[in-house]
Amino acid sequence: MSQIFVTSDDHFWHKNIIKYCNRPWNHGLDSNGNMIITDQDVLDMNNALIENWNSVVNKQDIVVNLGDFCLGGKDKLSENVSKITSKLNGIKYLILGNHDMYNTHFYRLNGFSDVYDKPILWNDQFMFSHRPLICRGPQYNNLPFINVFGHVHNNMLDIVNGEKIPIEPVTKNTYCCCVELTDYKPVLLSSIPEIINEKLK
């Protein structure tokens, strides 16, 4: 029986994400305190993310990726995306993030079963979006869905109309599934309500 997983912001092939989000694939700091990141570190990150994904996802499972899947420059992006998707278990869906630079057709050609350029409601219970849908305050306590989102990594800030908005990774109606917050693995969708309940106890 297939299961459904969610994940976000893998940033395959993205060297600078290791520095921006303090990912563990690096060679430490140089004498000036700058993080040392080699091309091999990027390959190690890619391989670890693939291994982590496949450690929880079977071939018949569904994975909804909430965006910023892969970088690599215009000339190599198609090759980079298809090289990664071919190694990942599961039937893959993508919601385009701000770093997914091409149209839905491009990503369908390169390994995704379906691709969306806007948030989608899944099973009337989960609203999937790349950026968080800002749902704060008591007026949102009875929303009919949980907003599962990415984009903010481990920074917990979003910028809306030039203003920095603090974001809670888990609330009654929100759950952030950026890989930095999920041990760099996809999360079983059915476990999210339980994770929220545990967090709010």
Question: Secondary-structure blueprint of this entry?
Answer:
Elements (H helix, E strand, L loop, with lengths): L3 E4 L7 H6 L18 H18 L5 E4 L11 H9 L5 E5 L8 H6 L4 E3 L3 E3 L3 E3 L17 E4 L7 E4 L2 E4 L3 E2 L2 E3 L10 E2 L3 H8 L2
Parallel strand pairs: 1-2, 2-3, 3-4, 6-7, 7-11
Antiparallel strand pairs: 1-12, 5-6, 8-9, 10-11
Average of the residue pLDDT scores: 92
Query: Rg to the nearest angstrom?
Result: 17 Å
- Categorize the overall geometry: globular
Q: Considering DSSP H and I runs of 4 or more, what fraction of the residues is helical?
A: 10-25%
- Strand and helix order: EHHEHEHEEEEEEEEEH
Strand content: 15-25%
Output the CATH topology.
Answer: Purple Acid Phosphatase, chain A, domain 2
Write out the strand line-up for the largest beta sheet, numbering strands in chain order. Answer: 4-3-2-1-12
SS field, number of helical segments: 5
CATH class: Alpha Beta
Characterize the largest beta sheet: strand count, sense, and whether it forms a barrel.
5 strands, mixed
Taking the alpha carbons of the first and last residues, their distance comes to 31 Å
Query: Which regions contain 5 or more consecutive residues with pLDDT less than 50?
Result: none
| Annotated CATH homologous superfamily | Metallo-dependent phosphatases
Characterization of the model:
The chain is α/β, with parallel strands linked by helices and about 200 residues long. It has a single domain (about 5-200), classed as 4-Layer Sandwich (Purple Acid Phosphatase, chain A, domain 2). The chain is about 25% helix and about 20% strand. The strands form three sheets. Strands 4-3-2-1-12 form a five-stranded mixed sheet. A five-stranded mixed sheet has the order 5-6-7-11-10, covered by helices on one side. It has a two-stranded antiparallel ribbon with strand order 8-9. The protein is globular. The chain starts with a strand and ends with a helix. The mean pLDDT is about 90.
